[in-house]
Amino acid sequence: MTDYIDFANDEVDDGLFNGCVPREDAPGDNFAVFSSKFRTIPRDEWIELPEDESNKALIQKIKNQGREGTCTANGCASGIECAWNMTFGTDRWVELSPISLYKQCARGPNTGSSVSCIMKTARELGALPVDTPENRAWMESVGLNPAHVMDATGFSQRYPQDWEQTAQHFRVDEVFDIESFDEFITALQKGFVVSYGRKGHSILGVRAVRKSGQWCIEYANSWGDWGADGYGYDTEQFVSGSIRQYGAIAIRNCHVPTFMRQLDE
User: Fold this and answer.
1) Which residues, at least 6 apart from 89, have a Cβ–Cβ distance to it below 8 Å?
2) Which fold does the domain 7-263 belong to in CATH?
């Protein structure tokens, strides 16, 4: 396995789909800049956390965007799920629909979208749960409308009536613009996940690892059974060259719905 994947060539050779377009805003325009809130951890203090102690353990399912250019929404939906699982535990995982985010930022199934637009949607509107029997049963048990669901893929889907009432419960809260590789690693060390784009694709950084003597980002991809059980690695060179063009946004936490507080009382 290589340290990085050439996404552009993979798309041509293997029929895999990307869909990340350059960001239309600048760092700080819509999200707080990471360095304005946190001290960057010096490199000699970086550590490689075991998988079961890192945010990788929070991911319950690798997403599959199929033949749609929805990678930004898949990465962000996984990020919201990670923040939710960190807050409430993986036994209360709720699988979220990437297409419910993507339709707010794209004109069609393969026009693509930016990391920043998808993250703004995740912060301001939220995402809907995926339409599964398990999600519907759980939603009904906590007082949510079980009809407020969407499939994971399928751009032609329509939103359920009054869908925003449910989506507001599945939002990110604090998010931060990452401007350097060192900030990226720092965010991972602090327990955040980072949705980022590079070379026309978007993925979710979950863990800092050492490979071949250099620090890399381990990420969850959205191509289903691909790479190392759905995961891959990015080098500093590839991450640093794309952060400003495509954006890298760290998710610190999620919105805490009232009904979830009540479950713990």
Assistant:
1) none
2) Cathepsin B; Chain A (3.90.70)
Closest listed residue to residue 183, CA positions, set 243, 115, 245, 253: 243
CB count in 10 Å sphere of residue 1? 9
CB 106, CB 52: distance < 8 Å: no
Domain ranges of the chain: 7-263
**What pLDDT shows up at residue 11?**
53
**3 state DSSP class of 2:** coil
Which residues sit opposite 232 in a β-bridge? 219
**Could you tell me if residue 112 is left (phi over 0), alpha (psi between -120 and 50 degrees) or otherwise beta?**
left
128: three-class secondary structure by DSSP: coil
Q: pTM for the complete prediction? A: 0.95
What is the share, in percent, of the chain residues with pLDDT greater than 70?
A: 93
Q: Would you say the C-alpha torsion 36, 42, 45, 46 has a positive or negative sign?
A: positive
Instruction: Look up residue 261 and give its DSSP letter.
Output: H
Span 219-247, pLDDT tens digits: 999 999 998 999 999 999 889 988 989 99
